Amino acid sequence: MPDVTFRGRRRTVPRPSGGPEEVQVRIPRVLAVVSAALAAVTAALPAGTARADSIPPQNDAFYQPPNPLPAGRPGDVIRSRTASYPPLLGVSSTQVLYRSVNATGQAVAVSGTVLVPRTPWLGGGSRPLVSYGVGTRGLGDECAPSYTLSRGLDYEQAFINGLLLRGWAVAVTDMEGLGTPGIHTYTVGQSEGRAVLDMARAAERLPSSGLGATTPVGLQGYSQGGGSVGWAAQLAPTYAPELRIKGVSAGGVPADLVAVGKFLDGSAGMGLAFLSAVGFDTAYPELKLENYLNDAGRKLLADNKDVCLASVDGVGAIIGTAFRHITDFTTTNPLNSPTWLARFAENKLGGTKPPMPVFQAHAAADELVPLAQADTLHRTWCDAGTNLTWRTYPLAEHALGLTQAFPDMTAFLNDRFQGRPVTGNC
């Protein structure tokens, strides 16, 4: 089927002759609300049996970093412990607290999970490792993947299991501020990309993992995770040149947060734009989000600093902000502020060429992360000479995009681990 792109909210379908045909696409608002709510409700469905004795991260001393942090390098393991992994019996699960670097260059502690199949690797060479970037969770510590994975309650657990069943090790970062103290720096690529790379380093340096300097590494993620691994791909040559990254699979990438924010304004996913503003305000304190908020915005912020989308409160937050506008919650729109725009520009993907092969996927009818800005990233990376394979999924919105793209994303990494050559379709 031909690729489909969007310009704003219009679908462009190439004719067989090559000429574009513009078709207006209007998804009924009620369907968009149902889609967003359904995604959150689905995230709350159990993927296994929860541990009865699990302790939420905010009450668990493991997640509290020492003050000051011990000396070391990014990716060094500060502490680790064995964890439960209910869905698969033959997997060793270890929670780690490791060193990373935030968006302003300061050392921080980040938590995560290292998952390794117990069966020997028979695929030749060293066992591959995938550093996996998860999608949107929310802002609260109980959203941390290390917590939800250990309880068998993570909405991406089935996808992670698919990687483990190939015999690959999987390292899943919680990212800055999920699990550990402070607010999560949601969608701040400069932080998330480093967390993904340092998670791979931590997995390799964890003695019990059986991994090491010769480990072939892949990066994979969708939605927020797609942005995280996209940033990891760009940062890797200078930040983590020792990692043997063979390929990157990034889907549903929010590459340009200004474009995403404008697209979400007044849409079913307006709440995600607000979470992004909170994430940036946390990463860059000079932004002073509260100075831009009206009374409704201050109440929204107070009510949702600890929200997890996979919860009753999360579904309520999505529905409560659906089809609202940024101006409903602000006295001044941050998207019009030079100070905010400068920080968004620092976190816009496309400024550096990833040196490894990249598979970039996107749902053509994505109602949360617009296709147009992802297509711009694909063209920008291609123009820079990236070995990039681009694919869109014409019959998918955001959630279906993950399920449809996952097999292709995984197969792409498998081919890279097998040493098969690839020529992109730029």
From TrEMBL:
<protein>
    <submittedName>
        <fullName>Triacylglycerol lipase</fullName>
    </submittedName>
</protein>
<dbReference type="InterPro" id="IPR029058">
    <property type="entry name" value="AB_hydrolase_fold"/>
</dbReference>
<feature type="region of interest" description="Disordered">
    <location>
        <begin position="1"/>
        <end position="22"/>
    </location>
</feature>
<dbReference type="Pfam" id="PF03583">
    <property type="entry name" value="LIP"/>
</dbReference>
<dbReference type="GO" id="GO:0016042">
    <property type="term" value="P:lipid catabolic process"/>
</dbReference>
<dbReference type="InterPro" id="IPR005152">
    <property type="entry name" value="Lipase_secreted"/>
</dbReference>
<feature type="region of interest" description="Disordered">
    <location>
        <begin position="50"/>
        <end position="72"/>
    </location>
</feature>
<dbReference type="GO" id="GO:0004806">
    <property type="term" value="F:triacylglycerol lipase activity"/>
</dbReference>
